[in-house]
Amino acid sequence: MRIYSHYIDGHETDGSQAQASLPIFNPANGEEQARVALASKADTERAIDSAKQAFDAWSKVSPLNRARVLFRFKALVEAHMDELAELICLQHGKVLEDARGELVRGLEVVEFACGIPHLLKGEHTEQVGTGVDAWSINQPLGVVAGISPFNFPVMVPMWMFPIAIACGNTFVMKPSEKNPAPVLRIAELLTQAGLPDGVFNVINGDKLAVDTLLCHQDVQAISFVGSTPVAEYIYSKASAHGKRVQALGGAKNHMLLMPDADLELASNALMGAAYGSAGERCMAISVVLAVADVADALIEKLQPKIAALKVGNGLEPGMEMGPLISRAHLDKVCSYIDSGIQQGAVCLVDGRNTLADSEGFFLGATLFDGVTPEMQIYREEIFGPVLCIVRVADYDSALALINQHEFGNGTAIFTQSGELARDFCHSVQVGMVGVNVPIPVPMAFHSFGGWKRSLFGPLHMHGPDGVRFYTRRKAVTARWPKQLSADFIMPTMK
Ligand code: NAD
């Protein structure tokens, strides 16, 4: 059986030598398809050391030549799109077209990073004082590390490493132990594109590997994406070890549905946003706040669409929703359905009846009505294909609910009123907002990040914030005087 191992110094290490490993399941049939080696402390230190050795030479490569490696990498990913999409399907379970979409969204960050010569430009002021010039420069940090979740095995790592290495840093990636194959293939393609050995390394593993990255003195910055409890842990531990940290956490994304919205458009948007990728997206809509009397009409629109949803193996043509990632996660999502019913919500569609005989980790689309803010299914992130309808009296009470929720990743308003939409964009306490757009993931040249307990740290991911995160500024003040006299007062510009 294939044992996926680590990618250090330009090649994959021998997985058969690993002291510990975990199974990787095919979520579509429940079978163990491979194993993943778990890095020891020494393995992780070797990857950090490889990145450290590569840093000096890589940081001196001109930004233009660093960008040229990324141009070649982009072309290689495009040439291997089908192979990569299949790998994602096999280890994650999402449907093939969705996996392609993930790759395209990741490549957009590579395209953005190809503009690094422009993005790294500093500011220059001639004559800040008489005969004195000043400028700023943006320099790389050194070795930086990324830790990613299972739900976007390629896109989330691509939020991080293209910009990091374009800025001149070297990288250690720790992908999810549930689906490591796509990132290992990405590492090979980077090498093939001409990236020097050691600039991009992959460590597979669990808490031991992560803790080694968080505490190691040669790691300068940590980018994390995953659940909120782990994000909080990463943020506090890495910060305590003096590192720059951006830690993106969980979500509970609301759609605010006004009675004037186009319900055909809104219900189609909801189908994709709630059930696409089996709801395993941090930007999935999991709550609809149905204002006034719009809920009944919405349910009428949704029910036939849910009945027609094609659930099955993501590799089969025409499928719209695949399985969940693991048996344990399936059980957890099912326990939320139990909890919703026990706490008095009305389960209009129970997805537990879909493909119930399959050995795969399937759960059909589930729809709850009559959900109230006290219920567990409203308060907690479910991360599955479960959509909750909360009936609210008016716009103000809907807005207040969103603003009171502990998470603030994404949200959307569906309305025909420009005035209301404008107020919503201004007033809502959430990091990413859609107006008639259900999943408002910013494009690569903007930055991605939530508010409240959906993000820890000041900077969002990719876009301008990505460049800021992976560089540090230096300000230079220079003059070429003929003579200098001793000055004992605080210097001021003349
Ligand atoms: P997770 O938090 O379980 O794992 C994320 C990463 O952290 C993995 O690489 C894992 O190995 C590591 N990890 C897990 N437990 C750890 C621990 N105790 N100590 C150190 N490292 C640990 O998340 P997941 O289940 O892989 O992904 C789903 C979660 O990610 C959801 O909560 C989802 O909302 C979130 N997510 C957020 C965003 C965002 O942009 N905010 C994007 C994608 C996913």
From TrEMBL:
| Alphabetical list of CDD domains matching this protein | ALDH_F6_MMSDH
| EC number(s) reported in the record | 1.2.1.27
Q: Does the keyword Oxidoreductase apply?
A: yes
Give GO terms: molecular function aspect only. methylmalonate-semialdehyde dehydrogenase (acylating, NAD) activity
Q: Which GO terms describe its biological process?
A: L-valine catabolic process; thymine catabolic process
Keywords of the record, alphabetical order, are: NAD, Oxidoreductase
Kindly report, in one word, the top-level EC class recorded for this enzyme: oxidoreductase
User: Mind telling me which Gene3D superfamilies this protein's record contains?
Assistant: Aldehyde Dehydrogenase, Chain A, domain 1 (3.40.605.10), Aldehyde Dehydrogenase, Chain A, domain 2 (3.40.309.10)
Pfam families in UniProt:
Aldedh
- The lineage's top-level taxon is Bacteria
PANTHER family found in the cross-reference section? MALONATE-SEMIALDEHYDE DEHYDROGENASE
Q: What is this protein called?
A: methylmalonate-semialdehyde dehydrogenase (CoA acylating)
Q: Which gene encodes it?
A: iolA
